[in-house]
Specification:
alpha+beta, Beta-lactamase Inhibitory Protein, Chain:B, domain 1, 4-stranded antiparallel beta sheet, 6 strands
Length: 101
């Protein structure tokens, strides 16, 4: 029974996704938050970069339609005892958080 338990743990480890949650003080920052909410909890970022990307999709008539997406990247440097974080906002909402080396 022990090998079966180890196999189950290994399979669960392969299927799980890595989840990050940025903590600023005693407040948690999660996906879907607005830039205002993040700035209110964490303060201004140490660096930021705003760009626009053109994406394409097909409509009901199978025509290609272009649309603009605003991508805003924020970098937080919490000092030498912590890893830097990159927050990526899509159209003003937190889409993803990355831990930088």
């Amino acid at each position: 029974m022990r090998p079966a338990r180890l196999l189950l743990i290994a399979l669960l480890g392969l299927t799980s996704t890595q989840v990050y949650a940025l903590r600023c003080g005693n407040q948690l920052v999660t996906d879907g938050m607005t830039r205002y909410e993040v700035r209110k909890r964490c303060g201004d970022p140490d660096d930021s970069y705003l760009r626009y990307e053109t994406h394409y999709r097909r409509n009901a008539l199978d025509e290609s339609v272009a649309y603009e997406v605003e991508v805003d990247e924020w970098i937080y440097d919490f000092g030498s005892s912590s890893l830097d974080r990159r927050l990526i906002f899509i159209n003003g909402r937190l889409f993803k958080e990355e831990i930088l080396d």
